[in-house]
């Protein structure tokens, strides 16, 4: 069963704590993306990676970090520097950076991050 | 000014109505246009994509693009309660911006029986 999995479904962060959101895909896609979704603001790009061991900042990268050690995995760390982390986080993947084809960006089910 | 503007609604219609969802954009470099549907607390799923001006039809859904006006639309015919969701337009430039989508704010649609 091919797809994208994200875990956990809900995550609670304490003040000053770093937390890591998991994203795994078995679609053999080269490119992976992290978005943040807030009410009334649509999806905003945090980081993206078009190939293993390489990634680029998106529009709102401050307070976040990523790694891409394996093609299948693209974890996102929300650091203590991110002052307003409460949001719905979505991971996506697509074949080789090109989002436009019948095989466009596929999204995972999301992780909801809440601050205690 | 945001690169992509979408009326957030909410939009409430009776079952069977024709629904029109719209986005405007400002960057003429945008070449590819997509509509995603997102059910509550789920990830978005692709509904339609197109890269040229004109209409594209898929069942009850029609995507329309007018590049001269920088305006895109999604029409839903014979709307059903199961169409109740948030609809997001997504637009992509070509060239070195491959893979990066710019999303509208999303329109919340409710179809009531």
Please tag this protein with its features.
heterodimer; A: 116 residues; mainly beta; seven-stranded mixed β-sheet; 11 strands; B: 113 residues; six-stranded mixed β-sheet; five-stranded antiparallel β-sheet; globular
Structural summary, described in words:
The complex is a heterodimer of chains A (116) and B (113). With 116 residues, chain A is mainly β. Helix content of chain A is 0%, strand content 48%. In chain A, the strands form two sheets. In chain A, strands 2, 4, 5, 6, 9, 10 and 11 form a seven-stranded mixed sheet that branches. A four-stranded antiparallel sheet of chain A has the order 1-3-8-7, with no helix packed on it. In chain A, β5 (43-51) and β6 (54-57) form a beta hairpin. Chain A is globular and about 35 Å long. The mean pLDDT of chain A is 89. In chain B, β6 (54-58) and β7 (61-66) form a beta hairpin. Chain B starts with a strand and ends with a strand. Chain B is an all-beta fold and 113 residues long. In chain B, strands 2, 4, 5, 9, 10 and 11 form a six-stranded mixed sheet that branches. In chain B, strands 1-3-8-7-6 form a five-stranded antiparallel sheet, with no helix packed on it. At the A-B interface, β4, β5, β9 and β10 of A face β4, β5 and β9 of B.
